[in-house]
Structures are given as C-alpha cells and as structure tokens.
Amino acid sequence: MLIDLHRHLEGSLRPATVLDCARRDGHWLARHEYAESELTANGRLPGLLPYLDKIDNGIAAASRLADWQRIGREAVEDAAADGLDYLELRSDELWQSRSTHRTLTEGTHWTVVTTVARPCGEWRARAAVLLPGVRAVP
Predict the structure, then answer these.
(1) Which residue numbers delimit the Adenosine deaminase domain (predicted)?
(2) What is the pLDDT of residues 2-47, one digit of tens each?
(3) What is the distance, to the nearest Å, from the Cα of residue 24 to the centroid of all Cα atoms in its chain?
(4) Structural domain includes residue 117
(5) I need a surface site. Which of 2, 13, 52, 113 has the fewest CB within 10 A?
(6) CATH code of the domain covering residue 61
(7) What is the distance between the terminal CA atoms of the chain, rounded to a whole angstrom?
(8) Domain ranges, residue 24
(9) Model-level pTM greater than 0.85?
(10) Of 122, 72, 123, 121, residue with least CA distance to 93
C-alpha cells in the first residue's frame, strides 16, 4: 500500500493547467516567453522563498472556483497515476486568496473536497482534504 500523508493542493498545480487559466484571463504568465520556468523548480533553488514564489505564480493564475475544482481533480488523478492508495491533500484558501488578490468564495474548500471525492471513487483510491483551522488571537 502506497500512502502520501502530506501533499499540498497548491504545490500540485500542473503547469499546463496554470497556463490554460493564464491564457483565458490574460494573466502575465500567458505572455511570458519562459512561463513554465516561473512555475517549476528545475534544479536546486537558493531556499524556500524562491520555491514559494513559483507556487504563488501558479496560484495567481487560478482565479476561479472552477479552476480549483479542476486542480483538485487533477491532483487526485496525479496521485492515482503515482500508484497511491491513500492521499491526504492539504489546501490553504487564505494563501489562495492572498495570491489571487481576491476572495474565491466561502465554500471553495468544500467544493474542492467534493471534486476530489468524485475521482477517488472512480479509481478506488482514498483521499482526504485537510483544511487549515484559523483562530482569532486577541
């Protein structure tokens, strides 16, 4: 049995999906000559922040709820293609909204959870989406 207990939805973006979204919305990535290099880490980077910048670039192009539904479905497809029997997929709506400079919707996570559950049933894989808890500190 092959298990992944820590895969991030935001880090599972397919470059082709991000570029589809970018072209649709006229995002700067669609006009960038080396757009894929702005999304992927080919080789070692000088730390965590340059890697997170690449993830931010992808998140910023996925600006619609339907984009995140697609991304969730593709993350599970990719996990199944990797031979996983179980996947815990983590997602952070606050990071998504900060990177896209807009609030997607309050129900984004539950829509992604529903979207993820559908392909899991088709592949007989099990997946869970872990959502961050946010607590106000006085």
Answers:
(1) 3-107
(2) 888 888 888 899 999 999 999 999 999 999 999 999 999 989 999 9
(3) 18
(4) yes
(5) 2
(6) 3.20.20.140
(7) 45
(8) 3-130
(9) no
(10) 72
